[in-house]
Amino acid sequence: MTERVVLAYSGGLDTSVAIGWIAEETGAEVIAVAVDVGQGGEDLDVIRKRALACGAVEAEVADAKDEFAEEYCLPAIKANALYMDRYPLVSALSRPAIVKHLVAAARKHGATTVAHGCTGKGNDQVRFEAGIAALAPDLKCIAPVRDYAMTRDKAIAFCEAKGLPIATTKKSPYSIDQNVFGRAIETGFLEDIWNGPIEDIYEYTQNPAVAREADEVVITFEEGVPVALDGEPVTVLQAVQQLNERAGAQGIGRIDMVEDRLVGIKSREVYEAPGAMALITAHQELENVTVERELARYKRGVEQRWSELVYDGLWFSPLKHALDGFVNEANQYVTGDIRMTLHGGRAVVTGRRSEQSLYDFNLATYDTGDTFDQSAAKGFIDIYSLSSKIAAQRQLRKQHDGNPA
Q1: Cβ 257 vs Cβ 251: under 8 Å
Q2: Domain residues for 50?
Q3: Are 150 and 227 part of one and the same domain?
Q4: For position 221, which CATH number holds?
Q5: How far apart are CA 284 and CA 224, in angstroms?
Q6: 311 neighbors 262 (Cβ within 8 angstroms)
Q7: By Cβ atoms counted within 10 A, which residue in 39, 170, 178, 399 is the most buried?
Q8: Would you list which residues are annotated within the binding site for L-citrulline?
Q9: Residues annotated as binding site for L-aspartate?
């Protein structure tokens, strides 16, 4: 029986050429799998037909936008996931979603190998292969660009020689990856970290410096899940999509950073994630109102570790799974409304309300009606500072003994 390879297929030049390239290099039949996580672009049926025309023996397409939003973006919102305190894991979240479909297709078609189009320099090769190893440790992985030196020049020459139905237009100076949660732009002139981004690279966001009227939105959460915008019920996907439009129109969610890649190099990345940043900002503030102090303090460390695990391709790892349980438990009271003003590149919280609020007006007020017993504070401070006081007295004795009068 001829071996089969499942290929993560985008419909572009590189993965279209990879179908025939893999067949020639390995002698295997190729099954192309395209997964829609909200990246936009061509119709899925057009992509499927192109894969078949390029030599795939089977081609599957999956509309996974809702799945991606519910099972991958939502956990990131609950975790306030920002790698290096800035990046909302746009690309990192999509890879395990795609991996699940690749593994399912491999099982369905009896494939022994999964292929992807990543280079040997970035994080995505790790995310794909670590994910596949976790879900299907018996499957092999190959990457034509990395393993068979399938450069772009060679890809274009192969495409022209075989007459493949794919355009071979001049390469964009940028490497772009996008999905419903955001958009990542790198390479080209951005590789000089002194160069500032230009407006031409952005698609999800408008120039925040352009004067426009502010937009006010009320986001409703139930146990950490965004369920309504301005009182209108939404799915998680709809919440992200609608805030992409509204926050994007105000230039919110632009990020320009030098980040630490898993492979050990630093890379300059530009992101735009308007919906993601608006939702995470709102969720963080609702947690401030509803999550007890010690739990909130501990969760901030969990959030950082959770983000690092996802960035590093360990979505399916035991630690990530265990931290999911903590994050979900911590979100059980994160229910209520956050009012935000979207304007000038910023999402600013202006109001909070929740039936699960731990904010007590009568304890917080300095005016009439104050129920806080201020007389209890002196004794509390005496006990709270006692260990420091004793240590300080010891230090004074040491200084005195060492410097006799």
Answers
A1: no
A2: 4-171
A3: no
A4: 3.90.1260.10
A5: 10
A6: yes
A7: 178
A8: 87, 123, 127, 175, 259, 271
A9: 119, 123-124
Dist CA 37 CA 32 (whole Å):
16
Q: CA-to-CA distance for 346 and 340, rounded, in angstroms?
A: 10
The pLDDT score that the predictor gives to residue 170 is 60
CA-based end-to-end distance of the chain = 96
| Listed range (154-158, 291-295, 390-394) with the worst mean pLDDT | 154-158
The H-assigned helical ranges of 110-151 are 124-135, 144-147
Contacts of 131 by beta carbon, 8 Å cutoff, 6+ apart:
95, 96, 99, 100, 313, 315, 316
| Residue 267 sits in the same domain as residue 217 | yes
Q: With a cut of 90, say whether residue 155 has pLDDT above it.
A: no
- Give one DSSP letter per residue of 95-113, joined into a string: HHHHHHHHHHHHHHHT-SE
- pLDDT at 153 (0 to 100): 83
84 falls within a domain: yes
* Residue with the two structure tokens 């300095």: 366
Same domain, 337 and 261: yes
Cα distances (Å, whole numbers) of residue 109 to 34, 80, 114, 182: 15, 38, 12, 32
Residues 6 or more apart in contact with residue 182 via CB below 8 angstroms: 88, 90, 204, 253, 271, 272, 273, 274, 275, 276
pTM: 0.93
Residues involved in catalysis = 14, 95, 124, 175
Quick check: helix, strand or coil at residue 184? strand
The lowest-confidence range among 105-109, 259-263, 307-311 is 259-263
The CATH number given to whatever domain includes residue 86 is: 3.40.50.620
Q: What single letter denotes the amino acid at residue 205?
A: T
Q: Is residue 298 part of a domain?
A: no
Burial pattern 94-124, b for ≥16 Cβ within 10 A else e, equals: bbbbbbbbbbbbbeebebebbbbbbeeebbb
Whole-number average pLDDT of the chain = 93
State the pLDDT at residue 171.
Answer: 66
The one-letter amino acid at 334: V
C-alpha closest to that of 271 among 151, 190, 155, 364:
190
Q: Under a CB-based contact definition with an 8 Å cutoff, are residues 92 and 83 in contact? A: yes
